[in-house]
Amino acid sequence: MKQNFSFIARRLGSSAYLPVLLLVVLSLFSFSTRGQSAELLVMYPEVRAPFSKIFRDISSGAEEGFVGDASSVAIREGEEVGSLLTRKKPDVVLALGKRSLSSLKASDKNVLVVLGAVSEDQYDYPGISMVPDPEVILDKLILLSPSVKQVHVVKKSRGVDVQLEGASEYLTEHGKKLIVHESRDIREAANIYAKLIEEANTGDSIWILQDGSYVNSAIFSLLLDAAWSKNLVVFSSNPLHVKRGALFAVYPSNKDMGESLGKLANQVLSNEAKPGLQPLRDVLVAVNERTGNHLGLALTTEVKNNVDLLLPAR
Prior knowledge:
alpha/beta, Rossmann fold, 6-stranded parallel sheet
C-alpha cells in the first residue's frame, strides 16, 4: 500500500497526492462508521388490536427517526427480557408503556433508556409524555376561533398541573386570558360549570383537560347545550368529545411521535438529552364542522388544511 501511494505521488505530483489520500481516508472512515452503527431496541407491550397498532406505529416512526440500526419487539406480560438484551446488545432502549419499563427494570441490565407512551410525569428518563403540550392545543384554538378572549378550565389537582404548564403565559402573549378553577370533587365541579354557563359571554370558552376535568356525561351535555344556545366554545384534550359536539380536540400522531422518540434516542447517545418527559407536540386535530358552522366560524380552505379529521356537517 505504501509503495502504491509513493508511485501515485511520483506520477501525479504532490498536489494530486492529497486529494487521493483524503478519498482513501474518508472511505476507510465510512467503513468504520458503518461497522460501529448504534443499535436501538424498541420494546412495547403485547396487546390486542386496535391498541397494538398504536404501538406498532410508534415503533415504526422510532425506527425511521433513529440514525443507526433499530428493531422492535412486543413483550408479553411478565416476560423476562434479560436474555433478549444480552442477545441484542442495544446501545439504547425505547420503552413504550409502563409494562415495558417494568420488564426492563426487572432485568437489572445497565442500558440507556428512552421512555414513551406514558402519561405520568414522575419519571426521570428522557422521553415524551402522552400529555399534549398546552401550546399546541391553544394554537389550534386561536386558529379555529381567534375571537375567543377567555379560556376557563376546571382542574382536579391543586398546585401545578403539567397539562397547563405555560398555558397562561402563551395566552397572555396572544391577548387572551386563562382562568383556572380548582375543584375538590365532581359535585363542586358541577357547581363551577353551572356558574360558568350562567355567566358565559361572547368570547368565553371552556377547555376540558385530558383527565376529564370532572366532566361526566351529564355535565358534558350541559356544556354542549350552552355551546349551542350561548355560542360558547367548548374544546377538549379528548377526541371522543368532538364526535359528541365539542368544537375540536387534539390526539397523538403516533408515527410522528415515534420519529421524535427515535431522534431523542440519538440525543441520549450523544449525551444531549435532558432527563424527564417532554410534553407531546406531535398531535393531530379533529374538528366538528357542524359545531363550527353553528358558532359562525370561518372554516376556510386554509383552516381545513390544518385539520386532520373533519367530522362532516349534518
